[in-house]
Amino acid sequence: MSGFFTGLFRFKRGPWEMLATLIIAIGVFMLMQPFVMWAFTYSFITTLVGTVLFIIVSHFPE
Amino acid sequence: MSENPIERAAAATPQPIARNVRGLSDRALAWWFVGPTIALLLAINIFPLIWTINLSFTNFKANRPNREIKYIGLRNYERILNDADIWLNMQATAHFLIWTIVLQVLIGFALAWLINRNFRGSSFWTTVIVLPMMLSPAVVGNFWTFLYQPQIGLFNYIVSFFTGVDPSSFEMLGSVDLAPWSIIIVDTWMWTPFVMLICLAGLRSIPDYIYEAAEIDRASRWRQFWTITLPMVLPFLMLAVLFRGIENFKMFDLVVQLTGGGPGSITELASINLKREAFEKWRTGYSSAFAIILFVTVFGLASIYVKALNKVKER
Fold first, then answer.
1. How many structural domains comprise chain B?
2. Which residues of B touch A51 (CB under 8 A)?
3. Same-domain check for residues B17 and B122
4. Which of B14, B63, B175, B236 has the fewest C-beta atoms lying within 10 Å of its C-beta?
């Protein structure tokens, strides 16, 4: 876990991609879940942030 | 005459073309080759995407082209993401997506496992199994509506044969409870062969000597499956999940043919609603925003899958 945070602070690709993937997955789940409406409302912005972050961090060094 | 294929190709090039090409650098030549593809990509992919993003911030209606177009900011997105009906469409899409992928992966892998045993007639059965995916979705949708008929449909009689219920007592396409499952059954019937073929390619790529080494180490069949077969087929399985996931997220033709989104709107998937908004209600700006939401979701999912695929390949 500490390796993950160290990677984030040093702008390494692996941990940042992991974070972006997590945000996208949460966004897609929010879009399709049947439980609460507010999660559906904020799903698009969550997925968008995750996707843009993924595009940016995939250019970070390994 | 030279034996070198490059020199032979150069000699075969007509003189007028050769004269034009002679003065070009390798880089310029490469641009000449990829240029038309890039131009085509920009014209039919990138430009419409940018135009759709632009339209998604407007109140444009394609059936009223002379009306003044107003920029309304994020209002289209706001309306869509607060619409309970679209939320229900998304839930219907999720139900369809999850169950089709689960069933297709399980049945497809099991079929590939059986076909890979190379029994007598396995090639014949492979051909029979892959037949459904070669049919047009419109044809499949049409003949499954006949199969699902409560009075004359074969499906109801088969269910009746195994369960004992009256064949005309239930209607697959007309029932609110059964209609979502009817489209899952048809999509699974049609596209399981595709997953099977990908899994079969994965199973056939595993060298025999790995299993022989495992046999020498007295590994059980069960252990061989979990430690050799499954990890080595996993990249192929993930590829199948990626393809089917993206395809089913934008599923349209098969479901329109089968249920038309009904009964009510219980099988109205996101893409069906999008088509209605765009080409029946002519709310072009609104439907552009909806299309962008779906596009970002598919793009995000594809990014996750490609990353996972690369990770599995590295192992």
1. 2
2. 296, 299-300, 303
3. no
4. B14
